[in-house]
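Q: A small favour: would you put together sequence and structure tokens for a protein?
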Amino acid sequence: MSVHREQAIEMILNRKEKDIQYSKAQNEQVSDIFGEYVFDDDAMLQYMSEDAFYKVKNVIKNKNKLNRDLADQVASAMKSWAMDKGATHYAHWFQPLTGKTAEKHDSFFTLDRQGKAIDDFGGSELAQQEPDGSSFPGGGLRSTFEARGYTAWDPSSSAFIMEVGNGKTLCIPTIFVTYSGDALDYKLPLLKSEKYLESAAVAVARYFYDDVQAINVTLGWEQEYFLIDEAFYTARPDLVMTGRTLIGKHSNKGQQLDDHYFGSIPERVYKYMLDLETECHKLGIPIRTRHNEVGPGQYELAPMFEEVNRAIDHNQLLMDMMERVAKRHHLRVLLHEKPFEGVNGSGKHNNWSISTDTGVNLLSPGQHPGKNLRFLCFFVNTIAALHEFSDILRASVASASNDHRLGANEAPPAIISTFIGTALTDVLDKIENGEESQEDIQEVLDLLENIPDLELDNTDRNRTSPFAFTGNKFEFRMPGSTINSSAAMTALNTMMGWQLRKFINDVQALKDKGDAPQMAIYKTLKEYIVQSKAIRFEGDNYSDEWVKEAESRGLHNYRTTPEALQAYAEDKAMELFTSSGVFTERELAAHYEVMQENYILKIDIESRTLEELCLNYVLPAAVKFQNELAENVIGLKDAGFKKKDLNYQMEFIERIQDAISKMHELGKKMTKERQEAHEKEGATDQALHYAMKVTPLMDELRIHADELELLVSDEYWTLPKYREMMFIR
């Protein structure tokens, strides 16, 4: 039986502090618990020989394979460490194309030949496992009857212990592939894209530093989310089924006063954040930042920057941990990009940069960026790559849920452009015009005498830009809060790897014609600056004027996922990903199909859930109240009131009836269009039909459902309202 609105509010108001289960280590210093459940360097040195330790580190550094003997030593050490921590099982932890994580638990316990119980975990179990691959999205890479799939250990990301209730499981980060070796996950393409970018970036970095041996791609993500009480969540079938409210009248007070952003964190939320941070720190996730976001009930957390593969593993683990910890506090995390209409949506800004193994951030401009040729090489090539492959980067963040956010007035639009700030714009303009730039990247901002001077960063921050340069990194703001960032980072790494190879060839061509090395670099960068100028925009990305200007520049505006995803089906994408070795033709086609199917299924679920909400909740409430009004009219007529005296009641009844009738007709149309979508041949046509035919009807249905929420007496409305979900804690 579903929980009704009044019951939910009563449950919330009667919550007791004693019902909350806190982490046992919450009051300890971060330095004492950080990485406690991670098989890191300290744990390896404690549980394996020094010789084996350095062999493993060398394998990871050089991206080589472990031999069987070394794998057995690692497995033995890992098992001993995990069992000393209380673990009884192990699992290969992987990231299938569902967007979530997956794991299959096996016990250390087994029986020897004499039937004696022993604990066993060897190199073969560490290196490989065989989960059933048939039920994961595969995009045609294997048939249902071809169930075999393999997970293989990723040594570059540390194993960790997941504690759930009283149980502890050793989790081993892995890739997930088919029997024939095709990628069925997000991790393997990401690792390949890193390798592809590194080989080109090292070559360019050696123009300036002879000692560079490797390149690190770094990522700092910013995770936005909403919190509501679990009673409200349970009372909203749309939240349970889809992660967002499919109907709901806007609260009279929302975010218009800007009083929630960076405001005092509510006590109940603060306790949740403390608990979550404790669990994150035990798992080695370097969370540092927490604050209120713009929307009521919306928050953000962010870690220190890490190597991109490890950062994404940590983010995927975090999203799972957020939900687990929230349940202890009788809260629910809403990670959907747009759980509440009319309120800011949630993103996951990806701050991307590249650095050398010697500690040089290749996107750091220094005091004189116009004279820093190393910086300009990587900065200009990033912009050139964005200009060349913007449609592919847009496709990498496309999803049914992110469609609600991109283009709204709190997120970047669906048009890809980059913001670099006035100082760097001046630098590029001067290079284009053959002038010398004297621009310093920073100047001192003088304040009152008793306040320290602040350094004003001339790159500023354009919160409307999808791809902004923010000092020594690019902030890609389009990824949605639910996304596995691997898709976007794989695209960005591959684009940049391709562009740097082009740069190397173009520079060499000029050197072959007699240009000195630095002059060849300068001339090539100047050409790229001119060619990619259309992708640079310093203004308001939210404005209608920009939409028109972007079109005149030849930039695309793909507002829906099916439109955006078609970039993956073009020859340009096929050439980029196959030539780089990141995807085979089969893998790229499969990933494209999975993303389309994911969109189709999510919109189908939303449409059916909306239909159920209307039939089981909205219309019964409206009819009951309408009957009460009709009885009132009949009673007043019997009492001798004239028709003109009943205009108010009759108008009310007619407005309710009009909304009911329109919902009935729209519901029938939506069902018909949904059926027609299924009759289309091919995922592309099905997805486009859902986007162009079904979702507009859902939007229209919502308008009338929300009108009825306004008209129907509060006592009849059983669904929690926006004002309650966002403000009652």
The chain has a mean pLDDT of 90. The first strand starts at residue 89 and ends at 94. The two ends are 23 Å apart (CA to CA). The chain has three domains: 34-177, 194-577, 599-727.
